[in-house]
Every structure is written in structure tokens, then in C-alpha cells.
Amino acid sequence: MNLAEHVLQAGTASPDRLAMSVLGLSRADRWSHARLRQAVLGTATGLLQAGLRPGQRLLMRLGNNPNFPVTYLGAIAAGIVPVPTSPMLTEAEISKIAAVIQPAMIVADKGIALPDHPAPVLSAERITGFAALPPAGFAQARPDDLAYIVFTSGTSGQPRAVCHAHRAILARQMMYQGWYGLTAQDRLLHAGAFNWTFTLGTGLMDPWTMGATALIPAEDVAPEQIPLIASRHGATILAAAPGVFRRLLRAEWKPWNGLRHGLVAGERLDPALRHAWQERTGTDLHEAMGMSECSTFISGSPARPAPDGTAGFPQPGRRIAILDDEGHELASGQPGVLAVHRSDPGLFLGYLDQPQETAARFCGDWFLTGDLAETTAEGAIRTLGRADDMMNAGGFRVSPGEVEDALAALSEAGEVAAVELPVGPGTSVIAAFWTGPATVEALRQQAETRLARYKQPREYIPLSALPRTPTGKINRRALRDAHRKDNP
């Protein structure tokens, strides 16, 4: 099999049908399924002609444009392993990633930070030209062969390369009815950027796999303008992070005919936001819970909406459990660690060159997500927070250690701790606590130099000393509790 071939197969039945439209306020860039397939397979040819060989890794440093999904699928079609990364990463951050994956080549847009690595750089302009080359064939692989790598922050603050197989695309079928309610007739508008993995999967690959249409706002379209283009182009499903839906609800617009529902992921859906959307549109918001190692696996859906206060239900075909410390399955109402069975086709192959780290995430045949949860009497999953201290920044998971290491490199910072603090219903920010004589401005400049924007603290709180546990570890719970007392 080949993941890219699976994504593009449905479009061969209706090659002239609209696969994707990039929507501006006055014009749209329309891609038929035939144009998309040609661009992907032409890009596969170009990457091979540029010197890449099947199995080698391609580091992607591309902006918010169609080159991103075309390059991603083109690499997979050729048997090359793409490694998509956020363009917001700094030179220091992307250099760490390059050191881990040792890319054979880098494809990059102008103005995006490049790593300190000797791999040759292929310009985005050349990638654009590849689309017209004779199409390559699909490199065939076994379902368990490596298809792509994504990165997530480890609890130690070091980036982890998460390896996924070609079979991962088969697991996404469980989302079609378990979350989306997606049909071939849908026009799914995703409000995120092309170069966000949420958009890549939910907004592009899944509609294409179904033979449906993907709608993506152009880069200059503000969230408040999305209802205008959505109604104009007949969007039936709207997908975005919760923050985008909050902005939509603050704008003036009328619901359009044909809107079926909205999809949210990346951060927790505030029940008040869901109720406000229901009142405004007469449609529901369906949340999905997932992670880099397994994409989404729990969600509400049109067929089975999530009860208030829960993340939804295990998607059909998923095997999910709540485990105690010994790995035994718990009954409903008993809190434990949320786990996914090893047999799930969407579960990762492992962390690149980190067998011990990979093994540590398993208890027998169960992958431990690190989320605490319990099952309700009706079978829904209620989340209870993280078993570790990972933070969520606008849908991206961020390790406290990564933020702390960046700030502590400033000599006057003293001891540093980073935690996620709630600032409103369903909204939180990263906060940094420090004990040294450094000024807030110096810390901000340090963060801007060393960290991507979404990892940078929004609050800086000085302390005379950091609270610690009896074993000497930073007591992050005490930091969060003290902040709540000071800001009730």
C-alpha cells in the first residue's frame, strides 16, 4: 500500500470534481482532483530527480500555501519520508529537530528559519515547478513501513520524533462517522493554515480520501470573515480550533443554509462555547481528543453527540481503556490513565531511535496517553487532566522543560518554572515563574530568541523561591494553586 495513493484514489472516479478551493474574499484558487493528483505525482518525480531516494527524510520548512500538502503527499508517493514542521520554530529549535532526523534534504520557503545542518536546501519555487513533471508511480510499501514523522515535545523538553506507518491512513476512517459525519457530498472548510497537521489531516486528506471537497481560507482572510466565504462557497462542515469559534461568535453574521455542524480539536472545548454556538447557529460543535502518537480516538459526532462535561466516546473500531497503576482495566466512574490498545492501526511505530522511551509509554498491550480520565455510565470519557505537566498552547502541546531550558540560559533568570494557567472559561496561557534579578523584558527577549511564538510565556511572575516536592522536584501544582488564590 501507499498512504498517498489511498488519499488520492477516490478522486480518480471523478477527476474533474472540485478537490480543494483556496478561498479569498474576491477570488478562489480551484483544484480539481485531476490537478491535485498531477501536482502530487509530478512533485514525487521532481523530488526523485533532485536526488532523494526512497527511505530518506525530507525536512519541510514551508509556509501557509498548497505546496505544503502537495509536497507532503508527493514525498510519501515516492517512498520518501516527509517531516512536516511548524514555520514558527526558531533556528535553535529546528536545528535540534534536524540533528535528530538527519534529513537528506530540506525544502523551504523564503523567510522561514533553517537549521544549522549540511543538508541541501530545495526552494519552494522549484517545488512549485515540479507539479508539471511527468507523474511518478506510487512506491508500494507494507502497512507497517514508515511513511512520515511528526514531532512532539517530550516531558524532558527534548523534541521527540514520532514515527507513523502507512497504515495510519486506515485508522482515520474511524473518524468519518465517529467524529465528522463526513460524506462525499460535503464541503469541509478548515479555518487553520495549510502547514498545521490538524488542517493536513482533517481539512485536506480526509475529504480527499472520501472524494469530498476541502475549502481553505486564503492567508489574508481573518477569522471574522470566514462566515462570508463559507456561506458564499456552500461549506457544510466548519473545522477550527476553539479560539477561532470564539472569534466567530464575537462577529456579526447570520448562519447560512447547508451548515451541518462544526468540528473542534487541539484544546478542550468549553461547554459554554458549545452552547453559544448551538444558540447562534442551531447546529452542534463536536470535539475530538487525540495526540501526535495516535491522532484522534475519542470524539462526539452527529450520530452520538458528547454529553456535557465529557470528551465524547471512543470512535467505532477503537479499543480504549482506563487503567490503574498496575495496568488493570477500571470500571466506569473510577479514575485512571487513558490508554489505547496496541492493535490500533493509527498508533505510532515508536519514537525514532528511542526504544526505551517508546517502551516506557506502554503497559503490556496498552499505550499510555498520559491523560487521566474516567468512563461515565453511558460509556463517554471524562478527562481529568494530565498525569504529567505538559501544557497546551493554542492546540500545541508544549513541554515545561523546553520553556524552562530556554529561559534559564539567561544568566540572571535564576530558577525558572513554566506552567499552564487558566485565564478564563476554556482558555489558558503559559506562565513563567523566576527567582533571579532578570527583568521581564529580558526574559521576553530571551523567549523570542529561543522559542517559537506559541511556546513563549504570556505571563511572567517573580518569586523569591520555587515551591518543591519532598523529592526536590518543582511543585507545579503548588504554583497553579497559588495563582488561583491570588486571582480568584
Structure commentary:
The chain is α/β, with parallel strands linked by helices. It is 29% helix and 27% strand. The strands form six sheets. A nine-stranded mixed β-sheet has the order 2-1-10-9-11-12-13-14-15, with helices on both faces. Strands 16, 17, 19, 20 and 21 form a five-stranded antiparallel β-sheet that branches. It starts with a helix and ends with a helix. The mean pLDDT is 92.
- Order of strands in the sheet with most strands: 2-1-10-9-11-12-13-14-15
Radius of gyration: 22 Å
Strand-residue fraction? 25-35%
Point out poorly predicted stretches: none
What is the number of helical segments per DSSP (H or I, 4+ residues)? 15
The tally of beta strands, per DSSP, is: 26
Given helix and strand content, the structural type is alpha/beta
Average pLDDT number = 92
Q: How is the main sheet built?
A: 9 strands, mixed
Q: Report the principal-axis shape.
A: globular
Summarize the entry for a quick read.
This protein has 15 helices and 26 strands.
